[in-house]
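Suppose a colleague, Dr. K., hands you the sequence of a protein chain of 344 amino acids and asks what its three-dimensional shape might be. Before reaching for any lab equipment, you can write down a predicted structure in token form. Begin with the sequence itself:
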Amino acid sequence: MESSNGKIILSYDAQIEHLKSRGITFKYEFNEEKAKEYLQSHNSFFRLRAYRFDFRDLGTDTYRGLDFSYLVDLARIDDKLRKLILYMSIDIEHFSKIHLLKFITDNYAGSNACDIVGEYVSSLDSFRQKELNKVIIRNLNSVYTDDVCEKYVYQLDSKISYLPVQEFFEVIPFGKFTNFYQFCTERFFNLSSEEKKAQTEIYYLLLRVKDARNGAAHDNCFVNNLKAENAKSRPDYNMLRLLSEVKMSKRQRRRKFKNEKIIQIFTCLYAYHELIIKNPKNCYEFLDRPYIAVPDYLKSGLQLFVPQLEKFIEKIPSALEAKYLPAKETLELIRNTVVSWYLS
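The predicted structure, expressed as tokens, is then:
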């Protein structure tokens, strides 16, 4: 079957032949038959090929020295990394909401719980108000949130009825929460200029954590196309300074942090470290063990992840290190950061 753009659906045998035509070998963990079984049962041809881009010979469509097992290793590492990013981002969202709610409670106890949300909604233009209302209505129809706010009535085409702030947090997605966080920082926080700067930095961290969480939730690839210079903005300065302490040179930071995926990965690691690990009471287990540094569910995942990274790093022959530098070096930096911040 041929599509309108000329692409054809390849049989599994043809997929193997296509990989071979590009110089990909089947010498190690996977021979051609095992590779075909892997493509049939574990991963798609298109997705697995996505990891090849960083290994291409300059100016060619071939990948000399690239073995099929390396692609599988990267797919496995990517799978574990996505799960860790989801774990971290869910905690970061949760405790960011708790932090903001604590500030509101400490400073506005006794006030109408709807007022702050009402002021936020009023600050939005009509398009964003309707967009927000649609999101809220959709979430109120969810079996996970309908019981939280069932007593409130919403009208999509007329004046928006405002939720109390606690209920508002339960029905807005992470992206809408980051916008509300920024609004509160600018409008309500009675902060010094330095404190406001720190809160603004947290807001920008949350934006990148949100993007990483969305990528992980949609099963997107993280450890591919690491050469691309596609950063949306500069990474957090304090994060870069802290990374200088984990065997990451200034040259590496300058080169690596031109890539948006790399920035998002390290922003998740940094935000979790700064917002949760540095405040042990933020851990879910603090009621039983008040001073636990890293939650068990995260630590066990990281302890399994690091050996995967090391296995891949050691597998790449020294003669190929220059060609495999983007993936190999990035994974080395992730390993060093995880060990330093979470497993030391």
